[in-house]
Amino acid sequence: MPKKIYLFATSKNENTINIKSLEVRFLKPFINFLDYDYLIVTSKQTVKALEQYNKEDFIATETLCVSQKTAVAYENFGGKVLAVGDGYGDNLTEFIEKFPKDTKWLYLRAELIASDFVQKSRDSGYLIDEEILYVSECSQEILDVRINDDSTLIFTSPSSISCFLKNNTLHKDAKIVVIGKTTAQELPDGTDFYISKATSIESCVELALTL
What are the b/e assignments for 126-163, b being 16+ CB within 10 Å? Predict the structure, then answer.
């Protein structure tokens, strides 16, 4: 009998038992988009948060996107993509550093973030402002779930791991799949895990199905 595969994410997949990991609460701070040369977007939730604003104020401003998935979401929204990262926030500095230091960037972000690329860029003399557009909180679904067997668990963000561990421990024989290195860092020390080839849920599920 094949092992159960649990997916802890805000999206679903037909090959898994889907557990919504986070509830998202959107914020709407005042932003003068005309003050900036480029935007930085690192999640599809940010794209949804931008729906609250007058699109004409920012839609022509080219945007640095963290991954192909985020870029597709932003393009479908009508936005212009400046460049696409490899899925890791830490690697966005290499794109930012291709521009003059007086370029003005605006990072539209979640309340809690795992990467420190903004501070690294600032330390190098680059101008990056930040605005928090949404807050992610543990969903009741992930807080209520109990998994005490050797199932395969897919985690798609550091917060999905921290939320799961509030009321669960990782079974010693469970197979753990994570979407990237930053997510893996949230696992307890000594935990064995597998990293998907690409930073996408599809890639995580493909890997999980082989375990």
Answer: bbbeebebbebebbeebeebebeeebbbbbbbbbbbeb
